[in-house]
Specification:
4-stranded antiparallel β-sheet, 5-stranded antiparallel β-sheet, 9 strands, mainly beta, globular
Length: 169
Amino acid sequence: ERYLRSEFEVPQKEIKQAFVGYIIDDYGTVLLNGQNVANAPLPRTEVPRAKQYDITKLVLPGRNVFAVTAVNAGGPGGFILHISIKFQDDSELELFTDTATWKISKVKTDGWDKIGFVATDDWKTPNSPGDRTVHPWADRIDMLPIYANADAVVERERRRVEASKDDER
């Protein structure tokens, strides 16, 4: 079992819609501001599955905190998360997990899931094998379900691939 946390800032704007998508290898629970985004622990599956949840009522303008309990049943483990927020003024905010803003610990410390928690020496910067496009994510798991705007992501990727083909010609 590992505990991960990250605080993030949301602009002081009215939120129209917000989604979080994530994968925990192998299973676990994701809290946003103390509330379970899935309303239950996720069951263990043979291959971790990407999940997406509406967090419009959980995310707030200002400071927010994700607190994750992740359980790895063997082999390499991992966690990846994507937040997509649309505001009433039609602006958007997207955030991905990164090693700069997340901390991880083997020890569940009092208050670890609260805004303003001061990390002790037990809380370290997590290791990263790379972004969502590399092993083990890209070749094992369908990543699209973590995106709120999956159609736009597919179109962006299609254009990127076409551009790289043009560059090779």
